[in-house]
Amino acid sequence: MEKTDFAGASETFRKSLGLKHSPVALRFVHTREEIPAGMEKIDRTVRHCQMVSMARKEGRIFYATDENHECFGGAWALGLRQISESLKTGEFYFKLGKFGSAPACKRTIDHIPHLESGYTYATLYAPLESTPFVPHVVFIVASPRVMLKLAQATLFRLGGRISSEFSGIQSVCADVSAQTYLSGRPNFSLGCDGSRKFSGIEDDEMVMGFPGELLTEMLEAVRIVTQAPGSKK
Questions:
Q1: What is the dihedral sign for C-alpha 66, 67, 70, 71?
Q2: Is this prediction's pTM over 0.90?
Q3: Which residue among 151, 163, 166, 219 is least enclosed by CB atoms within 10 Å?
Q4: pLDDT tens digit string along 147-188?
Q5: DSSP-assigned beta bridge partners for residue 24
């Protein structure tokens, strides 16, 4: 992975899949010393999904600590802070009208993938082509047609079926960041109201993440499935 041509990988993904914007690299670090020299800290407080969008659309390279994360649910899922009481009880999403009862919400929250609180010191973000770090997760935000090609690439080597986990909340932070990191498998998500409202995921776009360890494998598979005789051009 250390010798991976990230610029070439990003270019291949963008050309093969017809992406409008860059794939995004994410890394979790446990101490300040793990942050690459010269990497700047974000100068404001926003949501994780917005940070991904800043790297994806603006080419920004930066890191963020707990104080920079505006969304409590996102910061918890990423291992930056303890879960809030309103999230734990289910009251938060219940009050937003997302569930018919607080218990229904709690049942969902209890199954939200999340890193252990305090596990993460900072989250690092960069467009894949210029990442100064080896990513733990690579994100792609794109149309369902692109997700079809990524699903085919996911199954290219071993086959099988796609099993994705999502719940319509905490899509970028839990579904494709924490879930992907913890499981070691690609995950696809429909997005959520927050990510669509604040980070610019369009109505006709979905989001997926795959482990950085699978970058070379996914890259080769994408090259092949997008050029396959049976692939819709």
A1: positive
A2: yes
A3: 163
A4: 999 999 999 999 999 999 999 999 999 999 999 999 999 999
A5: 127, 139
